[in-house]
Design a protein that fits this description.
The structure is a homodimer.
Chain A lengths: L4 E10 L2 E10 L2 E7 L2 E8 L4 H11 L9 E7 L4 E6 L3 H13 L11 H6 L11 H14 L1 H6 L3 E6 L4 E7 L2 H14 L8 E4 L5 H9 L4 E4 L5 H10 L2 E7 L2 E6 L7
Parallel strand pairs in A: 3-6, 9-10, 10-11
Antiparallel strand pairs in A: 1-2, 3-4, 5-6, 7-8, 7-9, 11-12
Helix pairs in contact in A: 1-6, 6-7, 7-8
């Protein structure tokens, strides 16, 4: 497995002091997914858990719906290529269509993509968590973020029960960290509907859509949500908690799941 | 012009204290660009300077090369639609091709996209700046970041001379803030080759490519670069300065432009 960072020579300046040093710089690699022998997408990511990333991305895009849909997957780390054989068909065509018309962004109303709207339904799970439990989880996440402390360049995402971090991924891409969780759970049959996503980055509409498709009822971030994400979360029954740091947090939607 | 944020009702928890308050939450809007009557791309962005965003994005993608290429542009803010008439032709087809094969990411080697490699050349400008001048600029940027302080949700990018901030844009998308600078300069004939880009976000390969296409010789960030961006900057002759905060900074490439 590739290292997440490289040591590079830099010139460091502190006040009037100039020194030649080595600094850990975070890796960024382009990975191209081939689906059924066709070039499908290229993602820029941290070079770990590439299998989980590819599977999670394909789940999030509606290509993989059930473990039986995945026939074969091979990772060529050196060339940055992942070959996937899967039961695709309709979803594959929709993906291409969506990305031709709306690449790197989404449509115009709250449910901007027909494909997304069709594949999402309201999350009804009644799991509850206290603010104290949330702060314990965010503290654990910060302790685990060794890479961030080394390079200052990655986001992390964790899948948690109210009391434990059960999965943790770091990536230079906010979306990739979430996709890696999705992929790992798909490959290992881990139930998502009673879990909490704890996330380091901003909760944008694209992150909210991924969480909604995973049917995760609560997303917690140390950062801010956007208005669009908040509006979607309301419609989808997802609890959004932002600015969860130290002993503070803001509940933006569906506060019934936070036991205050 | 739409506001960059909305006041939304939230539940705030601080230790054991629970209160119902209003909080400023950052806006995120989907904007679809139609190029010569064809749906071209949808961007998620802050709802300001949409004209500059569209023009900057089209510059960055090689669609607009010269002011005479732009025939007409109209913004329908309410519907989130921008109509552009421009001399496109070959570049338009290349964009579609690139985005079909590599949406939301890029290829596999340092110069992963043929289109990008073709449109970039080495930056030779010999502009110099001192660390003290850099720290003055980053301090000014922080003072200007009122929206960030209100919502915690945006990135900013500034175009500077060694002594002054001459342009400043904020956006929920890192790429958009840079595209808005590019668009403004294209529309107002502002020279870029003797300027410095000061940026709040991580310097990824995609940001570096945008800066390289603008021929800006120095990019400064309060955050970290990636290894891929550092490697590209070396090849392209661009100076990368990271972690520029307070009285510290790291020079990753082409240190000859930093007068220490």
């Amino acid at each position: 497995m590739s290292k997440n960072y490289l040591s590079l020579p830099i010139t460091r300046v502190v006040k009037n002091k100039v020194s030649q040093e080595n600094d850990n710089v975070v890796q960024e690699v382009p990975i191209t997914i081939f689906l059924n022998d066709k070039e499908f997408v290229t993602l820029l990511c941290s070079p770990q858990y590439l299998k989980e990333l590819a599977v999670g991305f394909l789940c999030s895009e509606g290509i993989l719906l059930d473990p039986s849909d995945l026939y074969h997957l091979s990772v060529n780390e050196e060339e940055g290529i992942i070959n996937v054989r899967a039961a695709a068909g309709q979803a594959e065509k929709q993906f291409m269509k969506r990305y031709i018309t709306s690449c790197c962004g989404r449509g115009r109303s709250s449910f901007y993509f027909i494909n997304d709207a069709r594949s999402m339904s309201k999350v009804n799970n009644s799991i509850r968590i206290t603010p104290q439990q949330i702060w314990k989880l965010t503290t654990k996440l910060e302790e685990k973020s060794a890479l961030f402390r080394q390079t200052g360049g990655v986001h992390n995402a964790a899948l948690c029960t109210p009391d434990e971090v059960i999965l943790f991924f770091e990536d230079i891409g906010r979306h990739n960290a979430v996709d890696k969780i999705n992929g790992y759970c798909f490959l290992n049959n881990i139930e998502l509907q009673d879990k909490i996503m704890v996330f380091s980055g901003r909760i944008s509409s694209e992150i909210l859509i991924k969480v909604a498709k995973m049917k995760i009822p609560i997303i917690v971030s140390r950062s801010a949500p956007t208005v669009l994400a908040v509006n979607m979360a309301k419609e989808l029954g997802i609890t959004v908690v932002g600015f969860a740091r130290g002993n503070r947090l803001n509940i933006y939607t569906n506060p019934q799941r936070i036991a205050v």
